[in-house]
Amino acid sequence: MLPASDSAGPTIDVEVTVEVAGRQRFAVACVPDGPAPAAGWPVVLAFHGGQSHPEQMRGFSGLDEFAAAGAAVVVYPAGTGSREGILTWNGGNCCGEAFQTASDDVRFVDQLLDRLIDQLPVDPRRCHATGMSNGAMMAYRVAAELSERIASIAPVAGPLALATISPARPVPVLHFHGSLDQFTPLEGGVGRRSVTRTCHRGIVDGLLDWVRANRLDPEPVRTAIPSADAGMTIERIAWGKPDEAEVVLYTIDGAGHTWPGRVPDSFYLGTSALGFPANPLILDFFRRHPLAG
User: Fold this and answer.
1) Radius of gyration (Cα) for the chain, nearest Å?
2) What does the alpha-carbon distance between residue 130 and residue 262 come to, in Å, rounded to a whole number?
């Protein structure tokens, strides 16, 4: 669990740049202001949503608290786009300009990790990824295509946007999704409020690809989770065991296209499960799933 807010420490922002295909790309790293552990800090890549940018992701997710707790370096990469601050990721079959121009975002992440390791005291065995919506799709893509570098992932409110996956190693997955998501529906298809009108895969359909890739028992364990939010119910669906490359889904009945535990920045996104914060669960999941060796 994260420490109480009054024990949070200071952080330092570091801009990291790399050149990919003649384009200057960047990320903002939120770094604990203190001595790193002997092996280096874990890295959490936090991909913003579509038509968004790193600073908006910082406020939306609240992940800076990992760095303030001295638990990880949180890195907010920037997608691409012709308009400043309206950026997207090429997550597979989505989204926007990044998909239309075939932006090589996987190469960007690969080179970004190299630069982070060169510039900061980080642990290469503990590089993880999360993301919101289109950013969740990007987290899935780097897990599939950079599995030798990405230890585990925790996508929020965005599906696997690849038709097939063949990771070089099993990658543990933790996913959060609301039943009333009108942008990337839990059951798949075109969301009522979708901007790109992309036909998305169902969340469970995509997760079953990971269950097969991770060689897990296809029969999940379902657990009802107490909810502190009126009108919401939560179910935990887990394939595999905690000491395996487990795949875990939290479905929040009554929640929208939101980050659990955080107030959304637009009422169009729907309701958030404020009594069910995702961040402590994400941090615990990442801690339990480093790269082997």
Assistant:
1) 17
2) 15
**Distance between CA atoms of residues 79 and 59, nearest Å:** 17
User: What residues have CB less than 8 Å from 153, skipping those under 6 apart?
Assistant: 128, 129, 130, 139, 140, 142, 143, 171, 172, 173, 174
131 strand-pairing partners: 47, 155
Q: Say if residues 139 and 47 touch (Cβ distance below 8 Å).
A: yes
Centroid of chain to Cα 109: 13
Residues 6+ apart with CB under 8 A from 255: 178, 179, 180, 181, 232, 270, 271, 272, 273
Q: Rounded to an integer, what distance in angstroms lies between the CA atom of residue 262 and that of residue 280?
A: 12
Is the pLDDT assigned to residue 4 strictly greater than 50?
A: no
Nearest to 246 by CA among 284, 196, 277: 284
What are the chain's domains?
Answer: 5-288 (3.40.50.1820)
Instruction: Give which of 288, 289, 46, 284 is closest to 170, Cα–Cα.
Output: 289
Task: Give the pLDDT confidence of 202-252 residue by residue, as tens digits.
Answer: 999 999 999 999 999 999 999 999 999 999 999 999 999 999 999 999 999
Q: What CA–CA distances, in Å, run from 39 to 13, 111, 120? A: 21, 21, 12
Which two tokens mark 222? 């379902």
Q: Cα–Cα distances in Å, from 251 out to 4, 107, 238, 265?
A: 27, 32, 11, 21
pTM: 0.96
CA distance 152 to 248: 12
Query: CB of 91 within 8 A of CB of 161?
Result: yes
